[in-house]
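[job 0412] stage=fold_complex status=start
inputs:
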Amino acid sequence: MSAISAQLPGLQVVVPLLGAIIAAFIRRGTLAWAWATLITAATPVMAFALLVQVWANGPISYHLGGWPPPIGIEYRVDLLNAFVLMLVSLVSAIMMPYARRSVAHEIDGDKQAWFYCMYLLCLTGLLGITITGDAFNAFVFLEISSLSSYVLIAMGRDRRALVASYQYLIVGTIGATFYVVGVGLLYLVTGSLNFADIATRLADANVMFPRPVLAALAFLFVGISLKLALFPLHVWLPNAYAYAPSFATAFLAATATKVAIYLFLRIGFSVYGVALDIKALPISAVLYPLSVAAMFIASILAVYEQNLKRMLAYSSVAQIGYITLGIALMNQAGLTGAIVHLFNHALIKGGLFLALGAVVYRAGTIKLDDLGGVGRTMPLTLAAFVLAGMSLMGVPGTAGFISKYYLVVGAFDAGLWPVAFLIVASSLIALVYIGRVVEIAYFRPVSEAVAHAKDPPLMMLVPILVLTIASIYFGIDTELSAGVANRIAEGLIGALKLGEAH
Amino acid sequence: MDGLKNFIEHYNYVATIVLMVAGLYIVIARGNMIKKLIGLSLFQTSVYLLYIAPGKIIGGTPPVLDPKITVYSNPLPHVLILTAIVVGIATIALGLAIVTRINEAYGTIEEDEIFAREEQE
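[job 0412] stage=fold_complex status=done
writing structure:
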């Protein structure tokens, strides 16, 4: 048993990677689904074991091929990435039972096995970015997850999915290339690719080469921001989410942007923050206006959107604004809020997109005007949608409230009460766009499109309900989400090297 | 004079930047999806140069251990870029495959024509 537990960091990535290759050889869709479910179910078990180890004994360093860092590639698991690994793998595992019917409904039989192959590759990439301690290795995993997600999106039924996928490919590649340029500049000035090693060398490098160090930060910032869809670099996201297969949308919305935010935290705090005075770097100054703009502009765009998947996609951009706002605050409560919202938003958006997928499955449309009375024909699905929607708004007693609470406290701690006001004000816009769905789903006469719709089969319904109940449950019991996030934020802030002036 | 000296000492970076900006310009300015991919490829390739050129150390030999030699060039950038080249090829291949499918679905690969058709629907 101990032999396996020592190899857990490697297995966390290798199991889904090999699983993906085998899935490609399974020709039958249902069999490929069963295989992908089995592999996905194994990942949270490993992530949980890692989280327990890290919680008890501190960071784990795993040397790939036995080469010690900084020469070899190191997988380094600390509380932050153990938490993100857990989140990504657990949400994926909860979603898998849903995939079978939804994918069979939306994708042709001979392509289903390929879909699961791409899904497992994407999961591999996301877990790899999260676990690796090597900057270039993170780029390779970033491209593995990106390339497979372009394919997942292009598999949508609508031909617009192809254009959305193409646009995402262009923007995503530019983002990844910016990231490599940033890593290259860091490598030139420090001679290292290991995050922890770069952090120890960066202070000296900054004395000799201040401009490349700053340029590297700018490239990394823009590259990762394209991936995490920071406003105004989000333009790829609404179409990609709207036209991808329902399961792919839910999976990517819940995991992909969260992992990009993790990478942002890792480079901003664990590399730059440890070596230099992070408050003297122009990170907050750039993040504040863009986050606030995201919260308002993307939310307002969501209000005017007819296509519900696009509406939720714009809402995702707005919610990412809250997370980056928490990062910009750079204090204990703000950072806790950012990390806990990363967790809560994954559950909430996962639940919401799955519920929409169920509507697609039964009614075949997600145009708001066609869905009159759908709350009466699909009662459980829409009830889940409304509950998760309430959590999205941040109604007290839901998970969304916990995140917003920490963010508001963080804004007050930073002495920025207008920002606290803006957080509350922008949440009211969420009330409008979720309220619009409630009005049409419950108070309009039953329309033709949904007249014969009913709740989806149990295997689709259960994942929706589990994620929805989780997005309420973590508003009441915050030990697992906010408790861990608080300790992660403590660790990140404790490691920061702050200037005398602060 | 300083500017000229700076330029000559760093000419490899200047070449990188020119290629990078040219590639990015093509991606943004062109409406033809294939041309955009060509620009993207140029943009990615410029980064290879950014890594490879500083790996050469003047007077250094290829990194093959020999007791007579003390100065070696750095082989790590080459290995990294080998990986990046593979990633780049995969990206362009996937991009071309998607463009082929777009051509089948829309009968054109000009972005403005595709958007015009979406507007009509």
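[job 0412] summary: The mean pLDDT of chain A is 88.
[job 0412] exit 0
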